[in-house]
């Protein structure tokens, strides 16, 4: 079994967090999204994993997956859709069944039921019941078999969202190669599944019941971060003094925590410094970040960012790499806001 992670997109809905790197490299509870994808495939028994990247994203993705074992990196030279990205991996995939993982997805469920579904089907896709299916590709299923896929319909025919993970036998690649561009001008992999069905094949729908997110927006990042932080096991390898810790708190090696209250789940990354602050629940502090005199909850602070004595608590906040949030000066608010940013003062 081989696996392919599609990670060529930039993630415009995640701006400005994704402005300086691909969204797949953004950390969730200390682990880059794409690294979590690699681990999910490995746990499903996939031995060979390829990552399809764009020319601009490959370096960042290689860095984000360092330490995740051997990976093959392939290029999608132009952003022409998921089917086009799969064809960039066609030579890698030929010869056996495969798992396809859209790289910005995060799952709690194991992916092994997808591979098991191939014993009596040409392909399989993950589906999950959601309260607002119109925001997703919607699967219409009968007797656990896919009959139709509708992309973000106004009136959904079911409450089953297609979750962005698929398994298929190699002959499905022939159907991908026959696809023509959609109305959006893209070659879309799910349409190949409909061609399989039209020719008499079987596509099994595998229902997921656990946590799932496509990490498409900053709000999605915070929801995913809270989910994965909840699974932390308490561990203090850094230097903690004069502080009160409760619940699952992780302080990584080289981090310093002084005169703080940490209400888990909280993660303090390696080399970070947190002083005179109240953190939690659901707070993740990236490596080398600095936090002083702050009250934070449901917040993600990325690598080498600085939060220094803000005048009010920060709630449901995402602060990117090397960004600075501080109290106003004597002359008033001083704000530098980049493209696609959101600021509420």
UniProtKB/TrEMBL annotation:
InterPro entries noted in UniProt: NTP_transferase_dom, Nucleotide-diphossugar_trans
Domain Nucleotidyl transferase: 2-228
EC number(s) stated in the UniProt entry for this protein: 2.7.7.24
A Pfam entry, by short name: NTP_transferase
Organism superkingdom: Bacteria
Alphabetic keyword roster: Nucleotidyltransferase, Transferase
Enzyme class: transferase
GO MF terms, alphabetically ordered: glucose-1-phosphate thymidylyltransferase activity
PANTHER family, per database record: GLUCOSE-1-PHOSPHATE THYMIDYLTRANSFERASE, THYMIDYLYLTRANSFERASE
Name the UniProt record assigns to this protein: Glucose-1-phosphate thymidylyltransferase
Taxon lineage: Bacteria, Thermotogati, Deinococcota, Deinococci, Deinococcales
């Amino acid at each position: 079994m081989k696996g392919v992670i599609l990670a060529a997109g930039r993630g415009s809905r995640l701006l400005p967090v994704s402005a300086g790197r691909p969204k797949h490299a953004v950390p969730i509870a200390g682990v880059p999204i794409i690294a979590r994808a690699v681990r999910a495939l490995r746990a499903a028994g996939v031995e060979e994993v390829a990552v399809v990247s764009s020319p601009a994203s490959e370096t960042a993705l290689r860095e984000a997956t360092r330490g995740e074992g051997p990976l093959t990196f392939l290029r999608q030279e132009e952003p022409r859709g998921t089917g086009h990205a799969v064809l960039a991996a066609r030579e890698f995939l030929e010869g056996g069944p495969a798992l396809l993982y859209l790289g910005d997805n995060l799952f709690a469920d194991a992916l092994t039921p997808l591979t098991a579904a191939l014993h009596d089907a040409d392909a399989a896709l993950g589906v999950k019941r959601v309260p607002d299916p119109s925001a997703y590709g919607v699967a219409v299923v009968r007797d656990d078999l896919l009959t139709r896929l509708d992309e973000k319909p106004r009136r959904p025919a079911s409450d089953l969202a297609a979750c962005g993970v698929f398994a298929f036998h190699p002959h499905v690649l022939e159907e991908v190669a026959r696809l023509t561009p959609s109305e959006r001008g893209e070659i879309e992999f799910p349409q190949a599944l409909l061609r399989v069905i039209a020719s008499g094949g079987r596509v099994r729908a595998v229902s997921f019941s656990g946590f799932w997110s496509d990490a498409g927006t900053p709000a999605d990042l915070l929801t995913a971060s809270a989910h994965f932080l909840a699974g932390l096991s308490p561990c203090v390898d850094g230097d903690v003094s004069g502080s009160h810790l409760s619940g699952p708190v992780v302080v990584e090696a080289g981090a310093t925590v002084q005169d703080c209250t940490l209400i888990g789940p909280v993660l303090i990354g390696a080399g970070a410094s947190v002083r005179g602050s109240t953190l939690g629940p659901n707070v993740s502090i990236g490596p080398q970040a600095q936090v002083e005199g702050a009250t934070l909850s449901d917040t993600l602070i990325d690598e080498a960012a600085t939060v220094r004595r803000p005048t009010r608590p920060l709630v449901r906040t995402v602060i990117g790499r090397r960004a600075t949030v501080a109290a106003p000066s004597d002359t008033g608010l001083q704000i530098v806001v980049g493209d696609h940013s959101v600021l509420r003062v």
